[in-house]
UniProtKB/TrEMBL annotation:
Span of domain EamA: 18-148, 161-290
Taxonomy, superkingdom: Bacteria
Protein name: Drug/metabolite transporter (DMT)-like permease
Signal peptide: none
Organism of provenance: Pararhizobium capsulatum DSM 1112
Transmembrane domains' residue ranges: 20-40, 46-65, 86-104, 110-127, 134-150, 156-176, 188-206, 218-236, 248-267, 273-291
Keyword set includes Membrane: yes
Record's keyword terms, sorted: Membrane, Transmembrane, Transmembrane helix
Length: 303
């Protein structure tokens, strides 16, 4: 065995470590969701977003000082960065609003559909070619969303509609992230955090009554929202450096497993049968789309 193969970033041990890191990041995202659902029962969404964003900026501060603030603020296509930040702020706010009224598993089902929206929009937004196999998977995924949404009801519930909007905003932010792929990761995260902070502060300015002074323990938990989410993002980045995307990206669907477990354990939630059926279709569709894209990339070595 050559030294080069031993140190290859995608060797067997590195792939295993990447999978472990990815699983850990999904667990941390799930814990962040549990804390958010717990706290949003007492504190407004804007207050959660404000304190979470401030805590994240504290974590980012050493990187900003090291690289200099100009490298974060002066970027190409600032309009797209601002729009991406707005979409991320809207989707995070929508998530916390939806999870306050819906079980974790129900809410997570809508967010796991975001890659399906991205695949459906990519031919029109990014000019990517999508064949009939992926279009079939996209339609199956949309069917899963409809089943989870239960359109047979007299009317859609407001939290479900907000969740649908939030997952669509998340998909839009992912699409913009693809167009801004040349931007350093830390710069993208910085704009995302600052955008969420401005968005939430604007909400508090419009409705000052939405602020409730937290006690010491609640302040710690509110701050942990930003720290845990930031660490989860860092772990995802690390996992993608250790292993191929085909190895670690499908592990994102463990979010649904944790949502069911934590929802039952902490809140006594039992997911509806329609949500379980819809989520199964969404996960199957998302996995097919992902692996199909990986297969097509292997056929284009020059890409």
């Amino acid at each position: 065995m050559s030294l080069q193969s031993t140190l290859a970033p995608h060797s067997g041990s590195a792939a295993r470590n990447g999978a472990i890191v990815m699983l850990l990041s999904m667990l941390m995202f799930s814990l962040n969701d549990v804390m958010g659902k717990w706290l949003v029962g007492t504190y407004s969404v804007n207050q959660l977003m404000t304190i979470r964003s401030l805590a994240a900026l504290v974590i980012l501060a050493p990187f900003i000082v090291k690289r200099g603030w100009r490298s974060f603020l002066i970027v190409d296509r600032p309009g797209l960065h601002a729009l991406r930040s707005l979409l991320f702020a809207a989707e995070a706010s929508a998530f916390y609003f939806a999870v306050a009224y819906m079980p974790l598993a129900d809410t997570m089902t809508y967010w796991l559909a975001a890659p399906i929206y991205v695949a459906a929009a990519s031919p029109f937004v990014l000019g990517e070619k999508v064949g009939w196999r992926r279009w079939t998977a996209i339609l199956v995924g949309f069917l899963g969303v409809l089943i989870a949404l239960e359109p047979s009801r007299n009317s859609f519930s407001l939290p479900a509609v907000i969740a649908l909007f939030g997952s669509a905003a998340f998909a839009g932010a992912i699409l913009l992230g693809r167009t801004l792929r040349e931007t350093p990761d830390m710069t993208l995260v910085f704009w995302q955090v600052v955008g969420a902070l401005i968005f939430s502060l604007a909400g508090l300015a419009i409705r000052p009554a939405g602020w409730t002074t937290p006690d010491f323990e609640a302040t710690i938990l509110l701050g942990l929202l930003g720290i845990v989410a930031m660490m989860a993002h860092i772990l995802v980045t690390r996992a993608l450096k250790l292993a191929d995307a085909a190895t670690v990206v499908p592990l994102q669907y463990t979010l649904l497993f944790w949502a069911v477990i934590f929802g039952w354990l902490f809140f006594g939630d039992t997911p509806r049968i329609t949500v379980l059926i819809g989520s199964a279709l969404i996960v199957a569709s998302g996995l097919f789309i992902f692996f199909r894209e990986q297969q097509l990339k292997k056929r284009q070595p020059s890409a």
